[in-house]
Specification:
54% of the residues lie in helices and 12% in strands. By secondary structure, the protein is α+β, with helices and mostly antiparallel strands.
């Protein structure tokens, strides 16, 4: 051992290890190079549309034509689809949340992202490896014997524990962990987006199925009515009361209506297959639940989140924000790689010609060393990697701004659609009523001989088109409501954590909202 002549202090291996450990602790608590991330500020706007939003929609005297009220600042329930009061819809979504493979894939991706975070956090600690090496050797006895016994053949056993500790002086590992946590957060928001896409997709498909069933039923009613009219005309033709041209015209009109039925049935079959696939089943395992417009209730109150809250609620915006956070942290990693790297390494072992001698004190050896490595010349590699990291940050910042713009546009478009389609339904209901009255009057005039049969065909076609248009407008009211819930984020933040729910793994680890991050080149 070494003795300090002034103090008489003995510097033992234990003292050296303690000093190096203290240095390591100080390094771990040091600063992290690179920019500190601050969440972007919310857009400084009070609304989504250029004109003030009307407090409510128009009303139509038909199912799905109820008045809807816009509630500024109201929150969205986690299970927003229950507002349609449809047990079949609730049942199908419940099955899909359990069995949908895309959702299961998103869960697995989140777990993988979290494991990557934990793996990177392991770099904070020293790493140790144990090694045992038995060998049989033959060395020359002359000019220098290997062993004092002058034996040329001998066994040698070595046991060793070696450790190394890379000190995070400049925060390279802290920035790497920060980046991976941000990526894991981004993956969680992608999982939330998958939840929202799945539930809104099922709800929209259910509404489309209900619309198709309504159109098919209306078409069948019209076919039945036109068939009855054709039978009457044929009888009148036999009695000489109408011309053969009138009979052929009615037959042609009936054929045109019948031709619209197969495409509707095809679309219905495709919607059924889509719903079955979203539930996680094969087409041959089709769901038993069916949907009609009469089984759905249009929500009367529509929450409209404040613009300042939208960036908190939209999963796509939160994903873009976390990608921006990860890009910011990678700048710190790149800068740290240009600075000196500090590490501590050491090993302790024993060696002997017999295993029984491995644990004898005089056969032991140890080494403790520190290392500092400063990159001097890398051909510009580290510099250009740092510049690339800054460019990636600028790219992520631009993508974030684009995502926010698209989200606000999406909400504005949907709010406009809710109002416009409510007006359209009101107009379509009025058109259907007018067409129905016109058809009755035309039929009566035809019986009196006041109009030609061509006028009746025109009135029938107008009524048929009005009925189909009204059904489609009814369905659109439901679809617009679903789209609005989706555009505002879907209420995922109100979902209660449940056992095994990976989506809440990172819910409590959110970056604080500090001053606004300058979305541009980072210093």
């Amino acid at each position: 051992m070494n003795r300090n002549r002034k103090t008489g202090f003995r510097l033992s291996p234990l003292h050296g290890a303690a000093i190096l450990a203290a240095v390591g602790f100080l390094c771990l608590t040091g600063c992290s190079v690179g920019p500190n991330f601050h969440r972007p500020a919310a857009p400084a706007v009070d609304g989504y549309t250029a004109e003030p939003l009307a407090p409510e929609t128009e009303k139509a005297d038909v199912a799905g034509g109820e008045v809807q009220h816009f509630l500024a600042g109201a929150d969205i329930p986690a299970q927003w689809w229950t507002l349609f009061h449809s047990e079949p819809l609730n049942a199908v979504i419940a099955q899909a949340l359990k069995n949908n493979p895309d959702l299961q894939s998103a869960h697995a991706a989140l777990r993988a992202a979290m494991e990557n975070v934990y793996a990177q956090e392991g770099a904070y600690f020293p790493s140790f490896n144990a090694n045992f090496t038995p060998s049989r050797q033959h060395n020359a006895v002359q000019p220098s014997p290997t062993l004092a016994t002058f034996v040329s053949h001998f066994d040698l056993y070595s046991a060793q524990v070696a450790g190394t500790w890379s000190l995070d002086v400049w925060g390279a590992n802290r920035r790497a962990v920060e980046a991976l946590k941000a990526q894991a957060d981004a993956q969680r928001f992608q999982l939330e987006a998958a939840y929202l896409t799945l539930t809104s997709g099922i709800a929209t498909a259910a509404v489309q199925e209900a619309s198709l069933r309504g159109q098919i039923a209306a078409t069948n009613d019209i076919i039945m009515s036109e068939s009855d009219a054709l039978d009457i005309l044929r009888k009148q033709f036999q009695l000489g009361q109408v011309a053969e041209a009138d009979v052929e015209a009615q037959a042609a009109a009936l054929s045109q209506i019948q031709a619209t039925l197969p495409p509707l049935n095809k679309q219905l079959l495709q919607q059924r297959d889509l719903l079955t696939a979203l539930v996680g089943r094969l087409p041959s395992q089709q769901i038993i639940e069916t949907f009609s417009l009469e089984s759905l209730q249009l929500p009367g109150d529509l929450p409209v989140s404040l613009p300042s809250r939208l960036i908190e609620q939209r999963p796509d915006i939160r994903t873009a924000e976390e990608n921006l956070h990860a890009a910011s942290a990678q700048i710190g990693v790149a800068i740290a790689n240009m600075l000196p790297a500090f590490s501590i390494s050491g090993d302790y072992g024993t060696t002997a010609t017999q295993t029984s001698g491995l644990f004898q004190p005089f056969n032991g050896y140890w080494t403790l060393a520190g290392s500092v490595t400063q990159p001097i010349f890398q051909g510009g590699t580290l510099l250009h990697k740092t510049r690339a990291a800054r460019a990636i940050f600028e790219q992520a910042a631009a993508l974030y701004r684009s995502t926010v713009n698209t989200a606000f546009q999406n909400v504005a478009d949907t709010l406009g659609a809710v109002q416009s389609d409510a007006q359209a339904l009101t107009a379509d209901v009025a058109t259907e009523q007018t067409a129905s009255e016109s058809l009755k009057i035309t039929r009566h005039k035809l019986d009196l001989g006041a109009v030609s049969y061509l006028a009746l065909l025109t009135a029938e076609q107008t009524y048929q088109q009005a009925v189909i248009a009204r059904i489609q407008a009814q369905a659109q009211r439901y679809a617009d409501t679903i789209t609005l819930f989706q555009a505002l984020g879907g209420g995922w933040w109100n979902r209660s954590p449940s056992a095994g729910d990976d989506s809440v793994l990172l819910r409590n680890r959110q970056a604080p909202r500090d001053a606004a991050l300058p979305i541009g080149p980072s210093g």
